[in-house]
TrEMBL record:
Cross-referenced Gene3D superfamilies: 2-enoyl-CoA Hydratase, Chain A, domain 1, Lyase 2-enoyl-coa Hydratase, Chain A, domain 2
Cytoplasm keyword on record: no
Name of this protein: enoyl-CoA hydratase
Tagged with keyword Lipid metabolism: yes
InterPro entries xrefs: ClpP/crotonase-like_dom_sf (IPR029045), Enoyl-CoA_hyd/isom_CS (IPR018376), Enoyl-CoA_hydra/iso (IPR001753), Enoyl-CoA_hydra_C (IPR014748)
Keywords: Lipid metabolism, Lyase
Amino acid sequence: MGEFEFVRVESDPENPAVAVIRLDRPKMNALNAQVQGEIAAAAARVAGDDAVRAVVLYGGERVFAAGADVKEMAESDYADMATRSRALQDSFTAVARIPKPVIAAVTGYALGGGCELALCADFRVAADDAKLGQPEILLGIIPGAGGTQRLPRLVGPARAKDIIYTGRMVEADEALRIGLVDDTVPTADVYPTAVAMAARYANGPALALRAAKEAVDSGIDADLGTGLEIERLQFAGLFATEDQQTGMRSFIEHGPGQAQFT
Ligand code: CO8
């Protein structure tokens, strides 16, 4: 499906409808400006490819990503970062807005921007020895790619503040307990587990999955009335789709859960 320098977009050989966005920038997948741009381009590619029905974000067997490239970032001043920070956030938002199920497969470290990237997925599968965290405070800064916003939405404001204020590493078992990750498995099982999860969604009705994701994600940022209105419009819109006809006809003729969506 194509390559950039540090990010590969591949389809899983056994599940061709599952695209894998694979970070590959040794040693720690440090996210420099180029990687951020490539992540945005990879997100746009999988979002626009109808053959892709679900996505896995993966950094390899050793590390997910140890954050922004501190060596590059150290050269920035306020004027520079005031400009670059928008592109930086936009590249992660492009991942969060991929209108398909997205699963982060987290091995090793997911720190700083690495943790923030994982937060842009719908679900996180982590190695049982993975370490997540927002260590920016230890560098005299704060998270800048969504950590102060997406982390509290996931684990609650007090837990997020503790993680952000201390910069401590969150071990996988705590991450699971507080909902920062959704499953923990041995390192060797992280990727196959994430792909298996993605493959489950890949057979679903693409437009309904897209509508569900948009309704949940947009609704969480809105008041209840607005969220319900978003849901109502998405719900009604699905009655213009072939999948709705397939799903309901299949139920009537064959019973629940038998529909084959294309
Ligand atoms: N940036 C640049 N280089 C890094 C980074 C990084 N974030 N992390 C590790 N490296 C490099 C090290 O400098 C080292 O390089 P070298 O071998 O040339 O000396 C190599 O990777 C291996 O690292 P260590 O020797 O430190 O390996 P350890 O196994 O001892 O430790 C750790 C691994 C725990 C991951 C440790 O390297 C570490 O703490 N790294 C920094 C983590 C960090 O502070 N991350 C937050 C960065 S700030 C940030 O992400 C801001 C987010 C907002 C923007 C996000 C945009 C994408």
